[in-house]
Amino acid sequence: MKDAWRITQALYTTKQSSTLNICLGNVSGDMDSVIGSLLMGYYYTNKEGFYAEEEKEELDVTALDDTRLSKFFVPVINMNNSELEARSDIIYHLEQTGVIRDEIVSIDMLDLQHFVSEGKLGVNLIDHNYPDCNQEFLIPFVELIIDHHHDQKQDYPKLKFQDIRFCGAAVTLITKIMFEDEELRDKILDDKVAWLCSAAILIDTVNFKEKMRGEKWDQVDEDTYKYVKDMGGATIPDDYFKQLYYKKTDEETNIKLGWYLLARKDYKNYRIKGDVKIGISTVFIDIRACEKNFGAEAMKAEFDKIIEERELDIYMALTHYNDGEVRRQIVSYSKNK
Question: What percent of the chain clears pLDDT 90, i.e. is strictly above it?
Fold first, then answer.
């Protein structure tokens, strides 16, 4: 998707009447959402026939007409660009796959309200089936949904297609759609794509841990992963899975990120009882280690910042770490208490 940012810029500057089609993961920005948005954008851009067979040179996006530009599906990472640095496992995997960091489009790089006001927006959700409570203005523009979470049963007036079902990863579902497209399959599936999607499937199924079958993952994940291995021969070895998991959960690696990024890592917003807004992050460190390394006052100052910038009533950090046993903690903070 090397043309994504250049085409997005062209949509702003030279083709104001074009529709911006985005493929948007959820705001946690985990491996499944990031890889899922890339694959979804890649598949639907090819399905809509954006790339002409005869084109070999780099595209001159300023020369493309509105109809052509509207066939491009921009994969959008649903977090601020600076916060991608907190996803050490994802950055590492993208580098191994050859995806260039500077070509990724993040949500804060877009003025979505411009396209909303013009009525020129197509929203395609992956790894969630209801927009974040800060993004509910997108509801009238949702056209496609691919997700493995509980169906929120939202009515979308422009919805064309949805695949919402229990499985381990949303990447499983978009990979399955790609594999079952006999017209495009041989053109778009190769070793690179196989390697890209394999990690997301393995991470979300915990490397197909058998005791989690039916709870964390299902047969469709196993079948799709077999498709991936057969199509590209790209079996991710156990040690690579362990590297990714280590980069995500290692205490020292997370501490080096600093509290600013940790407080925004694996983050989601929730609204309860109508108007109480809660922001929740998952932190892979004992909260006592956080306090030791960052200081209680610095942590409190960051809590205040995130509450203000995201207009929260309550901020919560859920810790998940292993000191020989899996342990969890909950930290809740509110300016009003």
Answer: 64
Q: Are 123 and 138 in contact (CB under 8 A)?
A: yes
Q: State residue 172 phi and psi, 5-degree precision.
A: -55, -45
- The yes-or-no verdict on residue 307 having pLDDT over 70 is yes
What pLDDT, in 10s, does the model give residues 37-89? 999 999 999 999 888 765 545 677 777 787 888 889 999 999 999 999 999 99
* Phi, psi values for residue 213, rounded to 5°: -60, 130
Q: Residue 184: is its pLDDT beyond 80? A: yes
Q: Which amino acid is at 255?
A: I
Q: Which token pair is 128?
A: 């969630």
- 1: confidence class by pLDDT, cuts 50, 70, 90: low
Contact 47, 186 (CB under 8 A): no
Identify whether the C-beta of residue 77 lies closer than 8 Å to the C-beta of residue 108: no
Domains located in the chain, CATH noted: 4-243 (3.90.1640.10), 258-333 (3.10.310.20)
**Secondary structure of the chain in the HEC alphabet?**
CCCHHHHHHHHHHCCCCCCEEEEECCCCCCHHHHHHHHHHHHHHHHHCCCCCCCCCCCCCHHHCCHHHHCCCEEEEECCCHHHHHHCHHHHHHHHHHCCCHHHCEEHHHCCHHHHHHHCCEEEEEECCCCCCCCCHHHHHHEEEEEECCCCCCCCCCCCCEEEECCCCCHHHHHHHHHHHCCCCHHHHCCHHHHHHHHHHHHHHCCCCCHHHECCCECHHHHHHHHHHHHHHCCCCCHHHHHHHHHHHHCHHHHHHHCHHHHCCCCEEEEEECCCEEEEEEEECCCHHHHHHHHCHHHHHHHHHHHHHHCCCCEEEEEEEEECCCEEEEEEEECCCC
pLDDT digits (tens, 9 = 90+) for 145-180: 999 999 999 999 999 999 999 999 999 999 999 999
Cβ atoms of residues 268 and 280 within 8 Å: yes
What's the pLDDT at 236?
66
Between 13 and 75, name the one with better pLDDT.
75
